[in-house]
# Entry
Amino acid sequence: MIGMARLLQALVVWTLTMLPLVTGPAAAHDPVDLVALSARLLPSVVSIAAVKLIETPAVKGQAAATSRRRIMGTGFVIDGNGLIATNRHVVEGASEVTVTLSDGTTLAATVLSRAIIDIALLQAQPDKPLPAIKWGDSNKVKQGMPVLAIGNPLGYASTVTAGIISALERDIRTTPFDDYLQTDAPINQGNSGGPLFNLQGEVIGVNTALQSQGDGGSIGIGFAIPSNDAQFVISRLLQFGRVKPGWVGARVQKLTPLIADGAGMPRAERNAEGVIVTGLDPAGSALGKLRPGDIIVGVADSTMKDARTFNRAVGTQDVGTTATFDVWRGGQRLAIDIAIIDNPDDVKAGQGRSAKEMPHEFVDPPDLGLGLAPLTPDIRSRFEIDAAVEGVAVVAVDAHSRASEAGIEPGDVIQRVMVEPVTSVRAFWLLVDGARRDRHTRLLLLVRGPTGERWVTLPSA
# Structure
């Protein structure tokens, strides 16, 4: 059995080695050198660490606490001056963001803007220009096309995986505009925000979500925002600070032949693609122009397949312009011009939905396994901490964490990190991150407990 298994493994490796991994006309040429391609693309991809301080309110018998979540993600350079694209859910609500280049250089980054589509822009300040990616045309992507994903899965930076485009136009119900590419290239938590490349080295997608079972690992079903959508969103963010999608205030559903029959559409047209108006927003520009029961078969130059294509067609129109809607009403075909206006929800939100509304927010457990709180009178009384003791109180410890293994317990007070005094919860995490940036592999903590002070060490990552 062992010999047969080895034979099968060797056969698989040989088969993969012999695959040309090219598409279209290039198939007649030499195979793509994946080693050289990966080496060329890696410098344009960065690993992202986003720190989020989580406030836990006080409840009966337990004091308020502040813990920290460290989100791992990926980004890629779209401008050599340090402009980086990633997923919004990676950096949403972060108090600190750092990016690490493929050579190990770590840079602080600022979140410039975020969108309802899962895209965010970061700005780093590199000492020298960074290699930027080249965009590809996602409209040319075909099912079965080979692709490479580069990212930071589970904290393993600069990981390259390969696969194919498994399907197109996937709706995973994260926004009204979903049109994802599906890939079997292995992506895991930490790949979010990373690029999906074609074999010409062009970004044709932004890895955003995965379907998983049990432990959350890859099962070969991942989703990427098409590059054309990402470029549209990024251009709007750079211009307006938000996506500023077009809106008319019409709610629609997919047209079926039976609905078309009931709505009085001519028999010859009843199998046509379209959407039927279900309702109109009082604040929308379509009020007085469209009616419930109208069948929309086109907006500007776009045909209508379902509610998604309608939302995308309207959303990509420029606010302040007018679009022509191709409509069937009472058996007659009409061309109705409707003003494209600002979506009030987008204006109100400014930068899209909150992190709590994102269904694919992948986060690590609270960093170091510690729940911390300032030394308030209530905390001092609860844990019998002397008034002269300074630092931050440990109010919770993850039972499966390294902190627990090191003997840190609720009621302990962390007084110093790497000999520097701890003056607040925020100061503690800043000292921890400073130690990490200085490449310390272990953290040295001065902890005071019921039996006095002691030094303990924890892995820094």
Summary: Confidence is low (pLDDT under 50) at residues 1-28, 351-366. The chain has ten helices and 27 strands. The first strand starts at residue 45 and ends at 56.
